[in-house]
Amino acid sequence: MARTLEFFFDYGSPYSYLADTQVEAIAKRAGATLVRRPMLIGGVFKATGNASPMTVPAKSKWAAADMPMWARHYGVAFRANPHFPVNTLALMRGAAAAELDGLFERYHPAVFRAMWVDGRNLNDMNEVAAVLTAAGLDAAAFGKRLQDQDAKDRLKATTDEAVARGVFGAPTCFVDGAMYFGNDRLPFVEKALKGELA
Fold first, then answer.
1. What's residue 54's pLDDT?
2. Average pLDDT, stretch 50-75?
3. Are strands 4-9 and 33-38 parallel, antiparallel or unpaired?
4. Where are the extended beta strands (E) located within the chain?
5. Number of compact structural domains in the chain
6. Rounded Cα–Cα distance for residues 129 and 76 (Å)
7. 68-101, pLDDT tens digit by residue?
8. What residue numbers bound the domain in which 33 lies?
9. CATH code, domain with 56
10. 139: in domain
């Protein structure tokens, strides 16, 4: 039976970016379906009492070396964003709107690349507009779309669902109801998809 890999993420999470570079290949190797689930990490943190590891000096220092190490391991481009932290509410609403409008495949890689490869200031909506325009999207239409109730409701519902299912951070994967938190759990995600976990 073909399995599904659910991938909960937020564009403000560098480990989500790193994992995102791998999940399509993992799903393909396992003959599984990949479903990306954009959620608002700030909402998850608030609901669970968690906080960004970047707010803890020791963790932040450790991650500064760990993240480039993972990028080298994966063979992908990575740059710590000099404008971090970024309020991702608009970006994640944009992802929800892009899903609803059938534009996610253009929106998603453009935003992750702008954040964690190009180091763009995505707190600045003019910068976001430039990124979307370069990706062939209508930035003005997206700006208006962020205020539509269906986009707001979709993001809130996914975030609430994530919390209800035990999510406390990003990235988080689910396979057959089992939860795997963190980029470093991807080997177990692949084994679960292939039915190789006891």
1. 80
2. 91
3. parallel
4. 4-9, 33-38, 172-175, 178-181
5. 1
6. 25
7. 999 999 999 999 999 988 999 999 999 999 999 9
8. 4-193
9. 3.40.30.10
10. yes
